[in-house]
Design goal:
Layout: H1 9-28, H2 38-50, E1 53-54, H3 55-62, H4 66-78, E2 82-86, E3 94-98, H5 100-121, H6 126-150
Antiparallel strand pairs: 1-3, 2-3
Helix pairs in contact: 2-4, 3-4
Length: 151
């Protein structure tokens, strides 16, 4: 008789949630050298990877009110990390674009975080690294499903 394996998806989800939060908190330490606070870095990230984007869409993506996002974007603009241009479709809308300096700052931060994580992955056995690589692919599949469900 085949042994039945019980999978507790709630327990797995709870563990993944906790691990993701702890991992991000530890990697966020690498962001201190960027000179930007977390809200500015987050907004810049959306502009770099999701831009060009309107101020309203950026506020929605960051789950803040437009006046708050206006202040964040103005600070990023003063630092030369983003530029604003009028929308060709709607003269009242402003489109946000990352400057070369903004992209460079964000990519340097990403490289620091990836390197910090890679240094820990290198400490794992080859089998653990292979399992982690498979798990990362599975998590990407889960995220794609979540995005599809949200649409």
């Amino acid at each position: 008789m085949a042994k039945e394996i019980l999978i507790d998806s709630d327990k797995i989800a709870d563990q993944l949630h906790s691990v993701a939060i702890h991992l991000l908190r530890r990697l966020r330490r690498e962001d201190d050298s960027s000179g930007l606070n977390a809200p500015r870095l987050s907004a810049l990230s959306v502009i770099v990877f999701g831009g060009p984007i309107t101020l309203g869409d950026l506020a929605a993506a960051e789950q803040v009110r437009p006046p708050t996002m206006t202040r964040l974007v103005n600070a990023l603009e003063e630092l030369g990390l983003v530029t604003k241009q009028k929308s060709s479709h709607d003269g009242r809308s402003v489109i946000l674009l990352a400057t070369a300096s903004g992209r460079q700052l964000l990519m340097a931060g990403r490289q620091r975080r990836v390197r910090a994580l890679a240094s820990q992955v290198e400490l794992l056995s080859p089998l653990q690294q292979e399992i982690l690589q498979s798990a990362a692919q599975i998590l990407q599949d889960v995220i794609r499903c979540m995005q599809t469900d949200a649409e």
